[in-house]
Amino acid sequence: TLQEPAERTRVGPGPGPGLACCSYGALKAWLPILSWLPRYRLTWLKMDLIAGVTVGLTVVPQALAYAEVAGLPVQYGLYSAFVGGFVYCVFGTSKDVTLGPTAIMSLLCSYYVDRDPVFAVLLTFLCGVIQTSMAILRLGFLLDFISYPVIKGFTSAAAITIGFGQLKNLLGLQNISQQFFLQVYDTFRPAVLRVPDVTLGLLCLATLVALTFMKSSLGPGSDDLPVHVRGARGLVWSFSTVRNALVVICATCLSYSFEVYGHHLFTITGQTSAGLPPFQAPPFSETTPNGTVISFNEIVLDLGGGLVVIPIMGLLESIAIAKAFASQNDYRIDGNQELFAIGLTNIMGSFVSAYPVTGSFGRTAVNSQTGVCTPAGGVVTSVIVLLSLAFLMPVFYYIPKASLAAVIICAVTPMFDYRVIAKLWRVKKPDLLPFLATFLLSFWQVQYGIVAGVVVSLGMLLYDVARPQLKGHGVTLDSGLRFPAMQYLSQMLFSKALTASSHRSVVLDCCHVSGVDYTVVDELRDLLRQFQQRGEVLIFTGLSNSVLEVLLEAELPGLKHVESVEAALQAVSGTPSYN
């Protein structure tokens, strides 16, 4: 690993990008590069070069393909693929994570930018501002309210949507709608298939699948096999790792050979802008071909929910990846610093015409498996992308769309995890509700799916808070006590203890109660008075010192506290167990 876990990065909030004293420790929290650059070794450089080149050969064809998913010209995928390597090298806290265009972000962008690069670039800038602001204000905890079932429901629906959306390129179909349900109708209605596109697309798909299985056939330890290993295993690993690049290069050579002789067999990418993108401020307005000026306010209104969904999903995806690989490779990350790095990447990306980016699981896995030692591997990857922009853009004209469609379909297939349904059923069946709500509604509008899943998850969470389980000897609150639960608790105690055929006292075990608010105190005062009027007692046990002090200061009538449940039950002779 890059460093010992104890000094890899700070854990939890840390100084991060918030306010901190001007010390070297605080500076390292702002600039994590200072924690590893002074100790950089020549052996690390070799591994970072290998990993950077390998990821570079992976990201170039993927970036071209993901731009197609976003509905943008292919060069915008490359514009989005190189800034993250430079920015994350300085500000990131994971040695493995690679930032760039992904299937999820490309799909989300396609919903909001309507094939307009100006909208896409401004969306990138605004997403970066929102993400950076969340880091500075330490609002990363808000991401914790998006549960695992919601994320899985969204990614599974996105995998189907993205994969199905690429069938038109794989089959050479024309005039296919953007909306998912209309896509299904247009795809399966009678149409003329382009046989060359179908043949090439299926051949590319079969090749990618075969190379993937070849890699898995190396055995359970194949993921840890470095690219420079000699022998047949190393050769197979190398070819399977850069399979996307190999397939696109071969398909492009085939397409070019036919185009040279005037045979236009395949649907190709077509004209692309050559050279590096200009470094300029993102556009804050747009002038249409007919002279109409679309103002900044109008663009923001058109982007609408995208200004919430895209920044949040970008942060979720990247931080989840960073945590997974930090755990796998035994080092720590700073979640708040990750927010800052992603936000700054998007802000800087908007100056080179990028669309929103986040961490890529597939490329991060390649980066880790090839033995990357520091975030400097991302710089090498960015250089590969810049070289492609500078010298290879004329070649990209001949890339068949069917080959890019095959790359995308293979990339998103692992995102659909059908096994998660069985896992949720075994662990907690109600968790299927937010999963299904998110999954089904995401086919209609992705923002509705996410919002529905979050609302259902929060509803289930609040229900548990408002309806605590009452169990054990006496009455045990097993999930704490807050104001939503107080009315329910009061009604239950009143109906079971004070309105029964014979009144009875109650022992309330509060060992899980960590705090109380004014509503709880006020309701307890009324409840204690009702017990006193009927000649019964309500005894509290297990109260923490802080909670007991609050209740004593409130001067509750007839307040009794005993250290243990057993002692309380002895004090109230004849009190039956309550369930």
TrEMBL record:
Keywords: Membrane, Transmembrane, Transmembrane helix
Signal peptide positions on this chain: none
SUPFAM superfamilies, alphabetized: SpoIIaa-like
Subcellular location: Membrane
Main location: membrane
Membrane topology: Multi-pass membrane protein
Transmembrane annotation, as ranges: 49-67, 73-90, 119-141, 153-171, 191-214, 303-326, 338-357, 377-397, 404-421, 441-463
GO cellular component, one term: membrane
Record GO terms (molecular function): secondary active sulfate transmembrane transporter activity
InterPro entries in the cross-refs: S04_transporter_CS (IPR018045), SLC26A/SulP_dom (IPR011547), SLC26A/SulP_fam (IPR001902), STAS_dom (IPR002645), STAS_dom_sf (IPR036513)
Domain STAS, first and last residues per copy: 475-575
PANTHER family: SULFATE TRANSPORTER
Name this protein carries in UniProt: Solute carrier family 26 member 11
Native species: Scleropages formosus (Asian bonytongue)
